[in-house]
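HUMAN: Spend a minute on the protein record below and explain its fold to me.
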Amino acid sequence: MTTFVSLISGSSGNASLISDGHTRLLIDCGMSGIKLKEALSAIDVAPESIDALLLTHDHIDHVKGAGVVSRRYNIPVYATAGTHAVMDAGKIADENIKIIKDKDAFEIGSIGVTPFAIPHDAKEPVGFTFTVGNEKYSIATDIGKMTRDILESIAGSKNVLLESNHDVEMLRTGSYPFPLKQRILGDFGHLSNENAAKTALYLVQNGTKHIMLGHLSKENNRPEIAMLETYNLLSASGVDVGKDVTLQVADRYKVTSF
C-alpha cells in the first residue's frame, strides 16, 4: 500500500513523504530534525528508515533541516547540481551528495523517480513524479507559471500535491512590499489559486483521482479560499468533487494524508 503524505506545507516550511512499505523517500525538509522526527512519528515512520531525501530547490523553507537530517541518519540527498551548489544546509558527506537532472529518471529501491524542471527563482529547481507499481504520484509546487512541459510531466498521476499559493487580490492589496508582490506574481514566483484550479481541472481530465492543494501563503491566502476556487471551477466544468476526484488542502503545521 502506498503512503503519500504532506508532513508540513506552506511558506514557513515544506516536507512530504512517499513510501510503498519497502522504500521511504522524504521530499524536502524545511523543518528541524526534531520537528521532522515528531511528524514522522505521527505516521509510525522512524527517521532512520528513510532511504533518501530529495530536494526540489534551495530555498530555506525546503532545505532547513536537510543537512542535519542527512548527517544524523546518513541519508543520501538527491538534488540538482545547482541546488547542491547554493543551498545553505550545512555539510553533507560527499558520498551522500547525489546529482539529478531534469527528465533523467532513476530508481531508489522500489520507487521510480523523475525530476522535471519548474520556473522558480532558484538554481535549477525541479518537481518530482514517482512511480510505485503501475501508479504515478506527483509533487508540483513553487511554480511561477504552469507550463505545457509540467502538465505533461504530471498528467496521469493518481495523486498530486499541487501548489495553490495565493489569492491574487489578497496579495495585491496586502502588506507585502511591492518588489515581493512582483516576485510572487511573476513567472518565477508562485502559483495562484486561479492557476491551480485550472491545473486541477486538467489533471482530473487526465485521470487524477486525488488532489491536495499545498504551499499556501500564510498572509495572502486561506485554506477555504483556495479550496473554493478549485472546487468551483471543477464543479462548473462538470466534475463531481468527492466522486470523480477528492480535493483537500495540506495543513501548514501537521501531517495531511491523501
